[in-house]
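Sample pair:
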Amino acid sequence: METDLTPKKKIYSDLPALEKASDMSAWLKDHKAQAVEVIDLAGRGAFTETLVVATASSARHAQSLADGVMALCHEKRYEYLRVDGYTNGQWVLVDCNDVVVNIFQKETRELYRLESLWKVPASKEELQAMASAADAKEGKQ
């Protein structure tokens, strides 16, 4: 007899978000997504734990990649909530709760520069390294 206090059987994988993101990233790379990046947002009070950002070569490619990510979620029992931007294919967002996959067209990715928005240094040392890299880049131009 089950009561309200009986734990319910988990229906989704309890794999850590970074491992799911790594799995999704590898799948995207295998299917010709370009410039795939994983951004860890754990502990930053963000809307998710991990972002995956990738570039598709066309709207149809972006849709195909989104379809594949959703199929991967189903196969591996990763939680999947919704997809947005699928019809247009310029920026397709696949919300998997603790991992959000963003699939961009090249021009749209360059416009929004999502990585620069979320690549906030996690420590003072990381901030100093980013500043040094920016200084070096300016010196080369």
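The first strand starts at residue 34 and ends at 40.
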